[in-house]
Design goal:
Structural class: mainly beta
Largest sheet: 7 strands, mixed
Distance between the termini: 69 Å
Strand content: over 45%
Length: 447
């Protein structure tokens, strides 16, 4: 069997020798089919060519497996792989899964229940590729999910926290039920009658064309705990040969060059960075895509990268207390845009207004304007590297302006000492010993 299946925007080609080794597929998804017979025996098939949307699980039904945190990884002559509890053909078993698959290679954080199809196995019976379908088989016309169970009554079963709020689904003798422990260490076959009332267990179910339950999976949640939020996969489609990308969400380590599962409602930032010698179609080396309130699997198209050198722009903004800045080519005021390439250096010398002592220079990157960097002075000049586009501001330190007013009010003179911390904050004292001396304007906290 020579098989071509879809994997996002790409095609995957595999060969299966023997009828028993060929996974099944959904006939509705076939896009091409051909047979080759022996020349001498026209009724004997030698080769079957199939082009299909995807293959089914290891057998004709979807395959489920669970993975706990920091699952054991086995390494031998066949490779590195997990041995994970699974349900195949409605039976409890285990499956070997390649530990390097991007969807599951973060052993400490990739935890949960997987519903998969389009399964590909190598000669050692190790799953080397699959399509995770949780978001499609447990939603819409194919399934449902929720929090809480209402015990079956021989006709219907409830999914919800209480009898009054649950949604009820019919089932029959063909309905299968499975139970997953709270740490995703096991998945077990149970009878649907074994499901009891529970307000916080998670439920995932598939349904048939008559809206009856086919498979019901109950995931244990400890009493008093809240069920974890639904998760969705954020991925990148298209060619990424000439770029790297990261997918980031608050509270989790960023994912580099691979998909990430995020909780429902998350705000996600996908950042593309062109490799050396390439830029995106806008001439920039960085492209940022912001996804807000993610409530479904989301595939972000990779931007087009072409050979070129990134042009970086730095826009000048002058605030109170600075009249102009200069470099070797001339003097400038607000609105001037400087252009350069990575590795270049912009050196500017400011001219202060009368009476201004200390100024603060900050660079605000376009891709992270909420986290400006303080630029330090050297020989009355400021060096701003062309690393990314953004805005550079020159302005009198507002704390100094307050200090001058306090000097005027108190009628005595004292010095101002300051120190830049972590290239981001400035601390002030009124003496070289960093002693606050009860002056209410002086503080060790970042202003």
């Amino acid at each position: 069997f020579m098989v071509c299946t879809d994997d996002g925007s790409d095609k995957v080609y595999n060969v299966y020798i023997g009828y028993n080794n060929m996974p099944s597929f959904d006939a509705a998804g076939i896009t091409g089919f051909a047979l080759k017979t022996r020349n001498e025996y026209t009724n004997q098939v030698d080769i079957v060519y199939v082009s299909a949307a995807n293959l089914a699980g290891i057998s004709a039904v979807d395959t489920y497996f669970v993975k706990k945190k920091n699952a054991d990884i086995y390494t031998d002559s066949t490779g590195s792989y997990y041995v994970l509890p699974a349900i195949v053909d409605g039976e409890e078993t285990t499956v070997k899964v390649d530990a390097s698959i991007a969807d599951i290679d973060d052993n400490a954080n990739d935890v949960g229940l997987w519903a998969i199809n389009n399964v590909i196995k190598d000669k050692n019976d190790i799953i080397t590729s699959y399509t995770k379908v949780n978001a499609t088989v447990f939603a819409g016309t194919k399934g449902t999910s929720g929090t809480g169970t209402v015990a079956p009554d021989r006709v219907v079963m409830g999914i919800g926290a209480s009898k009054n709020t649950a949604s009820y689904w019919a089932y029959n003798d063909n309905t299968k039920a499975y139970y997953v422990d709270k740490d995703y260490k096991t998945i077990s076959v149970i009878t649907i009658g074994a499901i009891s009332d529970d307000p916080n267990d998670q439920v995932f179910a598939t349904i048939d064309s008559e809206k009856r339950l086919k498979d019901v999976i109950v995931v244990e949640v400890e009493e008093g705990s809240s069920a974890p939020a639904d998760t969705y996969t954020v991925s990148v489609t298209g060619s990424t040969a000439n770029m790297d990308y990261t997918i980031a969400v608050a509270g989790k380590p960023a994912s580099t060059n691979k998909a990430m599962d995020v909780e429902s409602g998350s705000n996600v930032i996908v950042t593309f960075t062109a490799k050396a010698g390439y830029v995106f179609d806008d001439g920039k080396g960085t492209r940022v895509v912001n996804l807000t309130n993610v409530t479904e699997d989301t595939a972000v198209p990779a931007p087009s990268a072409v050979a070129g050198i990134e042009k970086i722009t730095i826009t000048l903004e002058l605030g109170t207390g600075v009249t102009k800045v200069e470099d070797a080519a001339g003097s400038y005021t607000s609105g001037k845009v400087f252009e350069g390439t990575k590795g270049d250096l912009l050196t500017l010398k400011p001219t202060k207004a009368d009476g201004v002592g200390t100024i603060v220079v900050r660079f605000y990157p376009d891709n992270d304007p909420a986290n400006p960097v303080v630029i330090t002075v050297a020989n009355e000049k400021y060096d701003i590297p062309f690393t990314t586009s953004g805005k550079v501001t020159f302005a009198q330190d507002p704390s100094e302006a307050q200090l001058q007013e306090l000097k005027r009010q108190e009628g005595d003179a004292f010095g101002l000492y300051y120190e830049v911390k972590n290239a981001a904050y400035i601390w002030y004292w009124d003496n070289a010993d960093k002693d606050v001396r009860d002056r209410y304007w002086s503080t060790k906290n970042a202003y």
